[in-house]
């Protein structure tokens, strides 16, 4: 599903964020990416959806070798990968429904399928009753659930979440985790970078710890492992 082999990433300013990583992630896994600030977690994640290119090494996602991917093929890779961020990134002038539908409109899904599928995913994330609301009318947790709905609406095989609970209180974070668990249980691979010790320790999933650009730890049913 995701294979990295001897991957390095040095940014143009000379900072080496990833310093030799090899890893395999299988379909259906739920993986936490942990590590100190600046350790390389976001870079690791960005390499997977080709937001960044490796300086050296091989990355294969859904049988696509990202080094050989042409610019015009990137949108096709992104159809297999949903991405969620700490700051939600919803379009403020659109309703919740429109934000989610937009993701299908851009890939030219037939209009008759769009309504059904959007309502389906809003149901999965528990936001059916907020379909007509603007993002500004939602709580932080609801906004994140809308962003998750948008990320999964075209049934990606992988959902990547970079600190999705970073702006949320602990209770709201647990609702987000329940939502992600539901999505994972239907077979979607989930990669989540987080600084939340309580979430990682509660969930008992695979934990990959990145320190100074390398994998310092990779454990099944792992723990957060740092003091906070
Ligand atoms: N676009 C960029 N250009 C130059 N250097 C960068 C860029 N993005 C990240 N870096 C540097 O690469 C290193 C790793 O950054 P990265 O964002 O991957 O870490 P992180 O583990 O996600 O950190 P945090 O937990 O604080 O979000 C840091 O030293 C950072 O300053």
UniProtKB/TrEMBL annotation:
Pfam families: ABC_tran. Keywords: ATP-binding, Cell cycle, Cell division, Cell membrane, Membrane, Nucleotide-binding, Transport. GO terms for biological process: cell division. Residues 2-228 form the ABC transporter domain. GO terms for molecular function: ATP binding; ATP hydrolysis activity; transmembrane transporter activity. One of its GO terms (cellular component) is plasma membrane. InterPro entries: AAA+_ATPase, ABC_transporter-like_ATP-bd, ABC_transporter-like_CS, ABC_transpr_LolD-like, Cell_div_FtsE, P-loop_NTPase. The keyword Metal-binding does not apply. It is found in: Cell membrane. It is a peripheral membrane protein. PANTHER family: CELL DIVISION ATP-BINDING PROTEIN FTSE (PTHR24220:SF470), IMPORT ATP-BINDING PROTEIN (PTHR24220). Belongs to the ABC transporter superfamily. Homodimer. Forms a membrane-associated complex with FtsX. Part of the ABC transporter FtsEX involved in cellular division. NCBIfam families: FtsE (TIGR02673). This is Cell division ATP-binding protein FtsE. The gene is ftsE.
């Amino acid at each position: 599903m995701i294979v990295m082999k001897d991957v390095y990433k040095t940014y143009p300013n000379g900072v080496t964020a990833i310093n030799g990583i090899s890893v395999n992630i299988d379909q259906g896994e739920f993986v936490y990416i942990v590590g100190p600030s600046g350790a390389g977690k976001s870079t690791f994640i960005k390499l997977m959806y080709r937001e960044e290119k490796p300086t050296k090494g091989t990355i294969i996602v859904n049988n696509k070798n990202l080094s050989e991917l042409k610019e015009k093929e990137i949108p096709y890779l992104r159809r297999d990968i949903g991405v969620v961020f700490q700051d939600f990134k919803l379009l403020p002038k659109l309703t919740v429904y429109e934000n989610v539908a937009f993701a299908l409109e851009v890939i030219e899904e037939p209009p008759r399928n769009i309504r059904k599928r959007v309502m389906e995913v809003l149901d999965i994330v528990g936001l059916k009753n907020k379909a007509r609301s603007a993002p500004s009318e939602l709580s932080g947790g609801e906004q994140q659930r809308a962003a998750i709905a948008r990320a999964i609406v075209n049934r990606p095989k992988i959902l990547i979440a970079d600190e999705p609970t970073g702006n949320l209180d602990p209770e709201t974070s647990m609702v987000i985790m329940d939502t992600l668990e539901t999505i994972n249980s239907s077979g979607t691979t989930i990669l989540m970078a987080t600084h939340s010790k309580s979430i990682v320790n509660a969930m008992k999933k695979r934990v990959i710890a990145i320190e100074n650009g390398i994998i310092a730890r990779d454990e099944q049913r792992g723990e957060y492992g740092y003091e906070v």
